[in-house]
Amino acid sequence: MENIALVVGATGITGSNLAEKLIAKGWTTFGLARNPRKDIENLQPVAADLLDLENLKIALKDISPTHIYITSWMRQDSEAENIRVNSLMVRNLLEALSSKNSVQHVALVTGLKHYLGPFEAYAKEGFLPETPLREEQPRLEIENFYYAQEDEVYAAAARDSFTWSIHRPHTVIGKAVGNLMNLGTTLAVYASICKETGKPFQWPGSAAQWNGLSDVTDARVLAEHLIWASTTEAARNEAFNVVNGDFFRWKWLWKKIAASFGIEAIGYDGTIHPLEEQMKNEAPVWKNIAVQYALEESDLNKLASPWHTDLDLGRPIEVMTDMSKSRKLGFPVFQRTEDSFYDLFEQLRMDRLIP
After folding, report:
1. C-alpha–C-alpha distance, residues 289 and 279, integer Å
2. pLDDT band for position 179 (50/70/90)?
3. Is 146 in the active site?
4. What is each CA distance from 96 to 69, 83, 152, 223, 351, in whole angstroms?
5. Is residue 45 helix, strand or coil?
6. 251 touches 207 (CB < 8 A)
7. Averaged over 197-209, what is the pLDDT?
């Protein structure tokens, strides 16, 4: 039977990498977004509004996917609104396809806020989990839009008899423009500004993150994991952490990143220096850099997301993620984190997004 994938959020870091992997493996692949991208060869774009059920039904009327990959979300001003909007997106999507009886598997991408809490209580006292983070850890006793999205998947699976998988990556490292959460590209842009202006590459975060163990998720690893879980019988109806498979300390990696740009690294000095503060006046600087080097994107806000990078690097605990559940079930993919960053920087240079 032909595998037909619907990638929801195909313009983002996760969705675009996943679409490319699926197409390379011979899948018929549709990419759903409000403004679909057309630069991925053989990706069939679907323009739709996930908050409008009738619009979704019209957009999907000639598409009967066997596998759905939900990689999209919309940030709102409060967690209550995050819950309302993001659960509705999932509910509408699965309801729009329910009558087709074609869906075999739904994969939902969430993240470590499952364990660390939503934005309003992120990694705060009273919500600090034990690490390494493990899938069997219970939900926090606090509202969280990830939980609401999961519950929509579970309800639709019970109704329509498809299998599901939940994927909880750590910070995703990969190329995307206009993405809400993009630590790798944010650091590349910050380093490029430091190089051009002579400013030091100042560590922005906490002592715990500087000194503690951490891990990240390469977008390519996440894409492979999504495909693996959706096509492996033993992985059905399970939630999984997904990270590169190695650990690092930022006090080591920060110096490596600085060296790759040929700039001076300044480590933790007893004070948090948020990137949002450090970069708040850099839009004109970036515009000048973009003109000087003929870059493709001169709008700093479309490349960098310092607010999210500050959330990650400012956490008061070290955060590492257990991958043994996936390993035990046969997922073999490993990625060296240092190379994740180097590969991203090279891709950004090739695409003329950084000098």
Report:
1. 14
2. low
3. yes
4. 15, 20, 13, 25, 37
5. strand
6. no
7. 96
Q: Give the tens place of pLDDT for each residue, 162-173.
A: 999 999 999 999
Q: Is the dihedral of CA 339, 340, 345, 351 positive or negative?
A: positive
Q: Count CA within 13 A, CB hemisphere, residue 210.
A: 16
Q: What confidence tens digit (pLDDT) does each residue in 1-27 have?
A: 799 999 999 999 999 999 999 999 999
- Strand pairing partners for 45? 31
Task: Identify the active-site residue in 115, 146, 147, 268.
Answer: 146
Q: Is 268 a catalytic residue?
A: no
pLDDT 10s digits, 273-291: 999 999 999 999 999 999 9
Query: How many CA within 13 A on the CB side of residue 119?
Result: 16
Taken in order 122, 123, 126, 127, is the CA torsion positive or negative? positive
What pLDDT sits at residue 76? Answer: 92
Best CA proximity match to 109, nearest among 136, 71, 149, 144: 71
> Alpha helices of 135-247 — where are they, by DSSP H?
145-160, 183-197, 207-211, 219-231
Q: Which residues, including other chains, have CB under 8 Å from residue 155's CB and lie 6 or more apart?
A: none
Nearest one of 332, 337, 174, 340 to 248, comparing CA atoms? 337
How high is the pLDDT of residue 181?
74
Can you give the pLDDT at residue 127?
A: 66
Report pLDDT digits (tens) over 81-93.
Answer: 999 999 999 999 9
Per DSSP, which regions of the chain are E strands? 4-8, 28-33, 44-47, 67-70, 105-109, 163-169, 172-173, 201-202, 213-214, 217-218, 238-242, 248-249, 265-266
Catalytic choice (113, 115, 175, 190): 113
Residue 275: count of CB within 10 angstroms of its CB = 26
Structure tokens at 148: 């609401």
